[in-house]
Amino acid sequence: CLGCLFLRDAESPNPMWGHGLTVPPQLNPKVSPFQRRFVGEVRRCEEMEKTFTFLQQELRGAGRVPGPCPESPRAPAAREALRVQEQSEQLAQELREVTRNRASLRGRLRDLRQYLHVLREGQRFTSLPAPLGSPPRPRALSEREPILDPSLHQHLERKINFVAGVIHPWRVTAFERLLWRACRGYLVASFVEMPEPMEDLATGESITWVIFLISYWGEQIGQKIRKISDCFHCQVYPYPESEASRTDTITGLHSQIQDLSVVLEETEQYLAQVLDKVALALPTWRVQVQKMKAIYLILNQCSFDVTEKCLIAEVWCPVRDLTQVQDALRQGSYQSGSSVECFVQRVPTSESPPTLIRTNKFTAGFQSIVDAYGVASYQEVNPAPYAIITFPFIFAIMFGDVGHGLLMFLFALWMVLYEDSPRLRQGTNEIWLTFFEGRYLILLMGAFSIYTGFIYNECFSKATAIFPSAWSVATMANHSSWSSAYLATHPMLTLDPNVTGVFRGPYPFGIDPIWSLATNHLNFLNSFKMKMSVVLGIVHMSFGVVLGVFNHLHFQQRHRLVLEFFPEIIFLLALFGYLVFLIFYKWIKFSAADSLVAPSILIHFIDMFLFTSNAENLPLYPGQVPVQMVLVVLALASVPVLLLGTPLYQWCRQRAPRTLVATGEQEPLLEGQEAGNSVNAAKEDVESGGHSPNAKHLDFAEIFMHQAIHTIEYCLGCVSNTASYLRLWALSLAHAQLSEVLWTMVMRNGFVGLSYVGGVVLVPVFAAFAVLTVAILLVMEGLSAFLHALRLHWVEFQNKFYVGAGYKLCPFAFAPDTWE
Amino acid sequence: AMTAHSFALPLVLFSAFWGLVGIAAPWFVPKGPNRGVIITMLVTTAVCCYLFWLVAILAQANPLFGPQLKNETIWYVRFLWE
């Protein structure tokens, strides 16, 4: 029903949202989204979400994963939301500060460490006397002395100054060359690699820096050197000249580094604590804020009433759940402590309501394949409960094989028994999810395939003789004296059922196993399967037409019952029901004794339409020709009734308006035959709109056109759809042939070798057989049969009664979120 | 072996069985939200399976021709089976 929701404030309906029952249509399209009442709140939620994203990133960067939300929290009230916002912002602030501190501490530590290395390495050049060429990897050019010999020190009058620092290893050569060219040999430069790699602040990668020590004479040289070092982005450190001061500096650096490390450790610990706090609170907050935001978005679609005091919303709500919604509203008002109650009121409407069909985990799969074609129009009969059985059954006709059916059944059974395992439920592979969603469907398909497999007597293409075969070879052999010599000269012989004792009654369950040994088994099977397909197809279609009756009765259109259903069913049964009768009659009445003159049903059927007769085709029963004439005339007579009946009736009603029956509330149609019951059909109360009392001028051209199309479609469809059901024969033939091929050409070769080696060879042969069986017969044929069964349901069955023009009720629900 | 199969016995048995499933069992389905669905399923299953079995047995009741066998098969069946 359409309900009008009166809300006092934003919080009271909180319990109601949890029920997930309503979906509001757009009430106020004129107001732009930015002017709506709760825009501020929505914005606040979005800001909080931004903070949460930042926190999440920080968590991820530190290598933690925030766990899933433990229980589903209620949507928070406004005060709580404020608190959440404050806390989250505070945490974010703290996090930022601590990270910043840590970064700066780290930078300082790095600097100190680099200085230490510089000093240490520099020591080697300047303090210890060493022979030429022995210092660790000096990188000076060969023209210059590689080291500064302390013995040289005394010879020089000028004071030697040093420039020390670190440089990126790639720039070393260029640096050296430039230095030499610029300073023309007034310097000695030595380069050595740092013993341990350090982080480059700019790129973050670990590089082995090169320490350089330049000794030079003269102030100007010194300035030049410093400028050049600047250009090359070297980190220059002061290099104390005397040995002692160097040692002092080194010790000082050591202690500084130690202190800094301690502080850094404590900072890291504090950071870890903050991250822990965040990880704890974040999941719940996120869900809460999401719920809030969803609620505010919905509330934004409401409008204010004249007094600007309460919100009004129009919502669709199932009638059965109306009291539940009202209770929830009452509870919410009480909890939020407001004085005025919120309530919901039914409102009459002429809009077409959405369709709600309640399903459980078993029926959901079947309902979804019906909905995939079209959601049922409001309150029309739902084909899904019948499809629960007919769909797997029609699949099984095309798939009939005990072995394959058993494999399919076991696979589905595994999925069903373990359906609660999280590993199965949370698979991300789309194809797996499709199979998993349809597990009950596959279960039934497998079960029915086992049954039809027994009837076709095929188990991995082999027949089983559960009962002894009805055909006696010995009797035939004795009767026709088939000695071994005779057999040797005749490669193929036929058993004649005319001879007494050869055929001893029909096999009680399924197809006789002798046929799997026969070379002409397709002759028999084709006839059997084609007739079976036609019979089942006509039964299925008649059932579809009968289902239309429920629609006519429910929507109080009894005229359609007389003017549409009766012509349709007469047309179908007079022509094709009669065909079914002919099939059964011929099976019962004609046997091997008159096999030479057995009439052909097909030719009789064609002659029936053409009003001719064929002399060679004997009648099936006396009086056949007049009976057929009557049936054809009856069928042809029903066509104009179908074509003109309903439009004329509506035209007459239009022209002579009687006093309309009071259209009060119509009681929900919940009783029924075994067919229409509360779980399956879409049952919501009929609104008192419908065929409204106001005199609308019905567009008769359109009605006539619509009815003409329907008539043509129905009549031609009867013929073509009957033929379409022959795909049941075609696919079952294909399946049987494929599995026979797999057996003869793959598996049988494994049994040829009779030695022990043959036993070993059997294993890979079986592996190939198994893989091909699963891939070709189960998967490919399974999908193919599934598709054709679906087509038969959607087109041939449903176009007899189904309209499928509705739209689904999508209730407001807090969907469980998938975060990334 | 080539025992004679009656036609009446399986007909009666299977009609009774599927009649039990499709007509008698619906009365015993416990009341609950799924009662309608279960009854629909029972009846549909009974109708489909019974019809399918009936077609199979009727198609074989009066065969117009017999199986054509290879001579090896005839020899094997004749002398080793029967």
From TrEMBL, chain A:
List the membrane topology term(s): Multi-pass membrane protein
TM regions (residue ranges): 393-418, 438-456, 534-553, 565-584, 627-649, 754-780
- List the Gene Ontology MF annotations in alphabetical order: ATPase binding; proton-transporting ATPase activity, rotational mechanism
What organism does the UniProt record list as the source? Cnemophilus loriae (Loria's bird-of-paradise)
* Protein name, UniProt field: V-type proton ATPase subunit a
**Keywords linked to the UniProt accession:** Coiled coil, Hydrogen ion transport, Ion transport, Membrane, Transmembrane, Transmembrane helix, Transport
Tell me what gene encodes this: Tcirg1
Indicate the family of this protein. Answer: Belongs to the V-ATPase 116 kDa subunit family.
PANTHER family, A to Z: V-TYPE PROTON ATPASE 116 KDA SUBUNIT A 3, VACUOLAR PROTON ATPASES
* GO annotation, cellular component aspect: plasma membrane; vacuolar proton-transporting V-type ATPase, V0 domain
UniProt xrefs under Pfam families: V_ATPase_I
Known role: Essential component of the vacuolar proton pump (V-ATPase), a multimeric enzyme that catalyzes the translocation of protons across the membranes. Required for assembly and activity of the V-ATPase.
Coiled-coil intervals, chain numbering = 81-108
Which compartments does it reside in? Answer: Membrane
Mind telling me which InterPro entries this protein's record contains?
V-ATPase_116kDa_su (IPR002490), V-type_ATPase_116kDa_su_euka (IPR026028)
Kindly list the biological process annotations in GO that this record carries.
vacuolar acidification
Q: Name the predominant localization.
A: membrane
Automatic annotation (TrEMBL), chain B:
Location in or out of the cell = Membrane
Read off the InterPro entries from this record: ATPase_V0-cplx_e1/e2_su, ATPase_V0-cplx_e1/e2_su_met
Family note: Belongs to the V-ATPase e1/e2 subunit family.
Highest taxon of source: Eukaryota
**MF term (GO), any:** proton-transporting ATPase activity, rotational mechanism
Q: Which UniProt keywords apply?
A: Hydrogen ion transport, Ion transport, Membrane, Transmembrane, Transmembrane helix, Transport
What's one GO-annotated cellular component? proton-transporting V-type ATPase, V0 domain
Q: How does it assemble?
A: V-ATPase is a heteromultimeric enzyme made up of two complexes: the ATP-hydrolytic V1 complex and the proton translocation V0 complex. The V1 complex consists of three catalytic AB heterodimers that form a heterohexamer, three peripheral stalks each consisting of EG heterodimers, one central rotor including subunits D and F, and the regulatory subunits C and H. The proton translocation complex V0 consists of the proton transport subunit a, a ring of proteolipid subunits c9c'', rotary subunit d, subunits e and f, and the accessory subunits ATP6AP1/Ac45 and ATP6AP2/PRR.
Q: Which residues cross the membrane?
A: 6-29, 36-59
A single Pfam family, by name? ATP_synt_H
Query: What is this protein's record name?
Result: VA0E2 ATPase
The topology of this chain with respect to the membrane is: Multi-pass membrane protein
